Automatic annotation (TrEMBL):
Domain of life according to the entry: Eukaryota
GO cellular component, one term: plasma membrane
The protein, known as: Aquaporin AQPcic
InterPro entries the UniProt entry points to: Aquaporin-like, Aquaporin_transptr, MIP
Compositionally biased spans, kind Basic and acidic residues: 240-264
NCBIfam families: MIP (TIGR00861)
TM stretches of this protein: 20-38, 50-69, 90-115, 135-153, 165-185, 209-227
Keyword field: Membrane, Transmembrane, Transmembrane helix, Transport
Family: Belongs to the MIP/aquaporin (TC 1.A.8) family.
Organism (species): Drosophila kikkawai (Fruit fly)
Gene for this chain: Prip
Main location: membrane
Segments for region (Disordered): 237-264
Subcellular location: Membrane
Topological relation to the membrane, as annotated: Multi-pass membrane protein
């Protein structure tokens, strides 16, 4: 029963520590930053490169700010991947997704309130381009989720400690690359919560399921692929007994040499 409670996450609800709530506030804030600044950038320019940089930088900043609290998921697709890989509990994953969506809604709502409607320009809402079917959009968003979550797992691999120093930048660059490659066709959501925020603000839910199913399926596939095939192998453990013997042998040799010098 104890193991089941741990996997489900009931122990986290019972804990008197504030770690879960701090993590949830972190996920809320991260998505608020993403939608406020990146979607705000979408109201100013139609250029895809400009938008790609805005979303990549927003993710870079968000993870840098809240990564130590929640792991810096800032995306239900990442959370789904972490859940499948057994890195977080089921209850924590559900709470993360709820707070990610709330943060995105708050961020886009703030943009909508603070600027005149003449500048809305769609508020950065994602939609399928003309002649792009829902299945095509699903495939594009699948690969976006796959790319992002592969980078997340690669950057946070415990057996590649050096990559952790560049993790926020690497993840931000993955978001930028995804936008550069596909923003014209689906808006390059790669984040269901991000699209919930703009859909709520614009009351436009057309083909909304694509922006949930695609990235999450891609994220789950990436998690399985990385943990089963691509994960770095742990460094081989040294034989402690042999190492200890070599150390003592070296010390004995040093004492012999010192004794020889004394006689000389």
């Amino acid at each position: 029963m104890g193991k089941f409670e741990y996997s489900l996450g009931l122990n986290e609800l019972k804990s008197k520590e504030l770690r879960l709530w701090q993590a949830l506030i972190g996920e809320f804030l991260g998505n608020l930053i993403l939608n406020f600044f990146a979607c705000g950038a979408c109201t100013q320019d139609q250029d895809g490169t400009f938008k790609a940089l805005a979303f990549g930088l927003a993710i870079f900043m968000a993870i840098t700010i809240v990564g130590h609290l929640s792991g810096g998921h800032v995306n239900p697709a990442v959370t789904a991947g972490m859940l499948v890989a057994g890195r977080i509990s089921f209850i924590r994953a559900i709470f993360y997704v709820v707070f990610q969506c709330l943060g995105s809604i708050a961020g886009t709502a703030a943009v909508r309130i603070l600027i005149d409607q003449d500048y809305y320009n769609g508020l950065g809402h994602t939609s399928l381009a003309t002649n792009i079917t829902e299945l095509q959009g699903l495939g594009i968003e699948f690969f976006l989720g796959l790319l992002l979550v592969l980078v997340v797992f690669g950057a946070c691999d415990a057996n590649k400690p050096d990559s952790r120093f560049t993790a926020p930048l690497a993840i931000g660059m993955a978001v930028t690359l995804g936008h550069l490659g596909t923003i014209r066709y689906t808006g390059a959501s790669m984040n269901p919560a991000r699209t919930v925020g703009t859909a709520f603000a614009t009351d436009n839910w057309t083909s909304h399921w694509v922006y949930w199913a695609g990235p999450i399926l891609g994220g789950v596939t990436a998690a399985l692929l990385y943990t089963q095939v691509l994960e770095a192998k742990p460094a081989p453990k040294t034989n402690e007994a042999a190492e200890k013997y070599r150390t003592h042998a070296d010390e004995r040799e040093m004492r012999k040499l010192e004794g020889a010098r004394d006689y000389a």
